[in-house]
Amino acid sequence: DIQMTQSPSSLSASVGDRVTITCRASQSVIRYLNWYQQRPGKAPELLIYAASNLQSGVPSRFSGGGSGTDFTLAISSLQPEDFATYYCQQSYTIPRTFGGGTKVEIK
Amino acid sequence: QVQLQESGPGLVKPSQTLSLTCTVSGDSISTAGYYWSWIRHHPGKGLEWIGYIYHSGSTYYNPSLKSRLLISLDTSKTQFSLKLSSVTAADTAIYYCARESSSSSAFDYWGQGTLVSVSS
Question: Which of A51, A57, B17, B52 has most Cβ atoms within 10 angstroms of its Cβ?
Fold first, then answer.
């Protein structure tokens, strides 16, 4: 299985801050890398697919980058509704695997 | 708008079979290009992909669960189902159904999730 490692596991930030989350795969997933946001008590929601493609309806302050084994999710100006847990997920091979999550908390 | 909704018992006894159904609306599960998926979230842990089924009936399972797992499709009812046998407390989790699109290779629609506890 491809192991997905996210860092940091949690961070504290203020509204308006720029935030970057990284995801590393144990082997190349090319650009088959997706990002999800999960708010407490809710299902995950797709933010970014294929490393850098913004899902329809997702605000443009979210962006993704990277290829191979190293990827990033950036939020350009943190909004109150962005405080949540973020997960990366590879769709290069079966079984699909997720990172452990990054919890973004209010400073 | 595609919607998915999980249903099934919230409590299962150890060694028994966990059975869940996902009802899909706003889309046909017979349409090519989508994989109808099950994913679970253990309390305090990360997300785990369980497996999925294609419109043709082809299934793809997580090897860690394969020996206990059955995913099936009922196109007449626009439903797909999960059966996980010989459950233990380690199978306690929130279970989600989701759709993976072959065009994006991402889970673009999710159900709200259902908590299944394994306890005697």
Answer: B52
